[in-house]
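Complex 343.
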Amino acid sequence: MGDFLGKMGMKSKPVIAIAGATGVVGNEMLAVLEQLNIPCSELRLLASKDSVGELYKFHSDEIRVEQLDGAAFEGADVALFATSNDLAREFVPLAVEAGAVVIDNSSAFRLQPEIPLVVPEVNFEAIKSSDRIIANPNCSTIQLVPVLQAIHQAAGLRRVVVTTFQSVSGAGKAALDELWDQTLAIFNQREIKIEAFPHQIAFNCIPQIDVLMDDGYTREEFKIIQESRKILGLANLKITATAVRVPVFHGHAGSVNVETEKPLSPKEVSEILSKRSELAVFSEAADYPMQLSVAGTDAIQVGRIRRDDSAPNALNLWIVADNIRKGAALNAVQILQRLLPQH
Ligand SMILES: NC(=O)c1ccc[n+]([C@@H]2O[C@H](COP(=O)([O-])OP(=O)(O)OC[C@H]3O[C@@H](n4cnc5c(N)ncnc54)[C@H](OP(=O)(O)O)[C@@H]3O)[C@@H](O)[C@H]2O)c1
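Predicted structure with NAP bound:
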């Protein structure tokens, strides 16, 4: 490990920049850096010109937001990106050119074959010492792959069917405001505005996340399928997905149906999953995780584990996690944590 980190050249107290620091994910990164006590000699908070001058607390310091521009990465060792795809495409190369290792939350680089796509508990070894960009997976993918990996190692995956129930925070701060504003407008009999989503989200579920593609799938569903295959190293994994936006502020849930090569009882699945530190397993049928209970927590929570008698070796599971923490900011900072020399 020391050798590997030596090649990566990560300092024990790096200069860290957060691009998109004022957004839902970037702001949580700031909190996670503090909570995990990640050492740094300087922390830079970067956002649009509208946020320049805002002050954020970090340990006992107050840090002033600066504008995201090419010069902002000079001297930075690490750049945590929590911006749109377009901004990532523009500024990630500049951060790399300035000498930083980038951990990017957008989907701009995730499926490029040479770029590692990492959930540290699943495939940290995908990172090579020469890599300069590491991609953080989609939030629904992050909470799915540790469970799939554990089941695959135990019994071989034959087929996976995923249906997600994704909160509005997954679409950023404007989307959080939109659910709130629409709910208030409806109670006050005012007209609602629809901007962040293709339809009204208050009191509704929308079976479209991201754009629709030519084959009828949405881009979000495509990401869940392709990212899972890449992270698990199972290029031909039979997996399909339906991604649904639900009127919940925080937390994503997934109903997952898995068929395996060898039989596994629900009890065996519970035991296998319980061995993984990133998972919290609810073995009692009446005790299950929900979006309200995962908000602000770190573990990926798994419950409702039961046999599916409609197919051989089939199981149903219910997987819930905080999309902003393990689904985004926490996962990114955990990658950084493992790159630091003292890890
Ligand atoms: N939310 C999730 O659960 C989640 C999970 C995984 C991945 N992601 C991905 O993470 C990225 C960030 O998502 P988010 O939910 O945090 O979005 P967000 O809440 O909308 O935040 C966007 C950030 O980008 C900044 N920004 C916007 N326009 C800019 C500009 N022209 N120049 C510089 N900075 C600009 C914003 O700064 P201002 O405040 O100054 O506008 C803000 O800091 C996205 O690619 C998203 O797909 C999100």
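The longest helix spans residues 139-155.
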